[in-house]
Amino acid sequence: MSSPLNDIWEAASATPYHPTIAKSAQFTAGFTLLIFAFILTGIFGLNRSIVNLPLLGIPASLAFGFGAVYMICAVGVYV
Prior knowledge:
- The chain is an all-alpha fold.
- It has one domain (24-79).
- It is 68% helix and 0% strand.
């Protein structure tokens, strides 16, 4: 008797996972995103306003978040 979980496991083995950014490019992507985030954060810190929040603040926080995760993965720290 076959269980549904075994069927899913067998179907998944035919299509392996391929990351969007290769392991060899994660350091470059993470470093670039972190530099971009620090630049945007600095500009946002110099002239804070409600208009600059969606233009600078949100992209800076997203770049910092994704950049930090890519850098953590690139240097081999797995969370």
